[in-house]
Amino acid sequence: MKYLIYILLAFSLLITWVGCEKYADDYKKYLNEEEIIYPGLARDVRSKAGYLRAVLVWNPSPDPNIDHYMVYWNNNNNSQRVEATTHSPSDSIMASIPNLDEYVYSFSIVAYDSEGNVSVGQELNNIRVYGATYQAVLQNRAYRMSDPYETYEDGSLKLFFNAPDTLNTGTEIKYTNRDEEEKTVILLPGNNEITIPDFKFGTTLQYRSGYVPEPNAADTIYTLSWETFPTILHIVEADKSFFRPLYLPNDAGDAWGWVLPNLWNGNTTSDQGFHTDGIGMPISFSLDIGMESSISSVRLWQRYSGRYNGGNPKQFEVWGSNDPASDGSWDSWTKLGTFTNVKPSGLPGGQNSEIDDTTAAAGELYAFDEPTAPVRYLRFRVLEVWNGDYLHLSQLSVYKLGE
């Protein structure tokens, strides 16, 4: 009986083996007796943000039989062929997909070999394409409102801008040079100022800023429009070698050996300038700047040892004339502007912060609303000082329209 069971078991195994042998190759009739071959896959598939386009990048498969790649999107309704120009995994293949809408896309990359075999598709999802909606929110880099530019005797111009957004790539500045040529320079995001040596004064200067929507983006996207920089005048410092004191009745005299001409000797750091007696407010003094000039601003340096204190001016007026009356009356003078000195820190008198000292040491600029009509003589009328009934100043500069 036991031997019969062994014989039946062996017979069953034989039948099973024969059956398997019979059907093992049946799948081949569905493949036309050919083996399925899948080309190698691309590596490190990635994307770069673009303007109305997507840029796809990958390292190619080392499979030498790959002939090209196909990129599919929009549910495979759109495609683009990309030739396999290299098979080295250390190289990169780039595909730019143009004419897209501002939207979020999914792409599939499929490799084809020279015999028509197809790889498994590789997906890239959530690829954002940027366009006019993103561009509309971009703003040009802001210029420095308090002091947007400086000009120099050699005719050069320096522009000042605030720090930019972190995705700013640069600001294009378009201007006309002295040869009537249109030129463009770039202010890089790491710089807050730029010098233009050949600007033609009296012409318009425009600028626009560029941004990348994402780090490592393929495209720089610029603001929708150019912005016009404030009117640029050729401002130069008046030559102090022409300055002369103008002593008029009713003006304050010198005291303590601090004479009026000290105000234009160029020394801003010594504790000796112009000083008056304690005669009460208002206190006036006058000077001849040597030639008729359109004045744009004045800069005052306070007494070095008494910043925002003592007889340093707190509120004052500037007057101008071309033919001042010899009797010291004000009828022949025109008021050009009224200014107030503001202490940056707001601390009480005698207490100065670092910014107070830094501001005063640089000299404080007081600009007129616009350049004045040409005047040769200036008269300062001090209405209030920080503390006391006398006036003292270290230095004075005058800025005018250059030629």
UniProtKB/TrEMBL annotation:
What's the source species' lineage?
Answer: Bacteria, Pseudomonadati, Bacteroidota, Sphingobacteriia, Sphingobacteriales
According to UniProt, the name of this protein is DUF5000 domain-containing protein
Looking up SUPFAM superfamilies in the UniProt record yields: Fibronectin type III, Galactose-binding domain-like
Residues annotated as domain DUF5000 = 264-400
Alphabetized CDD domains for the sequence: FN3
InterPro entries associated with the record:
DUF5000, FN3_dom, FN3_sf, Galactose-bd-like_sf, Ig-like_fold
As recorded in UniProt, coiled-coil segments are: none
